[in-house]
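Dear support,

Our group has been running a series of protein-ligand predictions, and this particular one with pyridoxal-5'-phosphate is the one our PI (initials K.S.) wants archived with full inputs and outputs. We had some confusion internally about which version of the output was final, so please treat the block below as the authoritative record. The input we submitted was:
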Amino acid sequence: MRVYLDHAATTPVDPRVLHAMLPFFTERAGNASSVHGFGQDARAAVDQARAQVAATIGARPSEIVFTSGATESDNLAVVGVALAAEGRGRHIVTTAIEHHAVLEACHLLEQRGWTVTYVPVDEHGIVDPDDVRRSLRPDTVLVSVMAANNEIGTLQPVAEIGRFTRERNIPFHTDATQLVGAAPVGVDDLQVDLLSMSAHKRYGPKGVGALFVRTGTPVVPVQRGGSHERGRRGGTENVPGIVGLGAALRIALEVMEGEHSRLTALRDRLIREALEMPGAHLNGDPVRRLSNNVNLSFDQTDSQSLVLGLDLHGVASSSGSACTSGSMEPSHVLVALGLPQERASAAVRLTLGRGTTDSEITYAIGALRDVVARIGRAA
Ligand SMILES: *Cc1c(COP(=O)(O)O)cnc(C)c1O
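Confirmed final output from the archive:
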């Protein structure tokens, strides 16, 4: 049996999404900037997708900038807003558990004289809005707090933070890549000014995403070379990809409610049965977490052995750890929770998806039992 439980890393393209994309590789392959009929046809498809993406998050179509994915969206949000606000201040507030796309964009700015405050999280991985509020300074020009963490699935109090960033007129960015299409997301409810998303995390193609930029939020374009996307992102539009993103979100909205409750039940069963194993711990918040995310640590094991052992059983999982110079460094997210080193480096992430069935969860739990017992015996 082969069981894919790594949907936080990527998802397969929904066949309906692929079907919608295919003509734009061949008979409808115009450049959306061209004035002729082929170009106009591509432009119409891009506009339709833009309206779909905007509707998904309660934005206006003109506020959607198509990108190559959430990594680019995060970079454009952080670097673009920072450069636009340079004259007013050079301080950014973010959290310790952001995706590397946000963290490394911040590091780039730090190397150039900016100051970045990394707000800590509690032992469940949740940021306290008061901590964010207290770290604001007169020269703060951007706050970036992710909506849902990709490793431990914790949901952040984005709307509460949005309330005071709005009051103080500070642009507020959220990386909502894991949340868009999984649960309702509204840019006005969240009071965010910028929001990142990616198609391939929601059964769309890899290499395409979007950044919501609220009207009136100054952003200096990072990718130069054309007036595409209203001058906010140069480069010929990835028409098939953009069409795929639009179709993927349309389908996601249709199945959202049903999938949310189905996945929550499967997730809770997986967590419950895994925690019956000796030396098992749940990482992240038990309640405020994505419906598809399970992150566990097992005493006397290590992430690499868990992931490789599960792979031998045909179960795809993730360690979240980065392999630095041959040794496994525990993930910055698990470290930020303040977990003991042994537990942070013995974590495995299992993320469920649309294709995940009850019998797959049964199989995965059996595999997990076997792998943990084997590692224990070998130690
Ligand atoms: C996957 C992911 C990204 C990166 O998205 P890409 O489209 O693969 O570049 C950024 N942030 C979060 C939270 C993610 O889960």
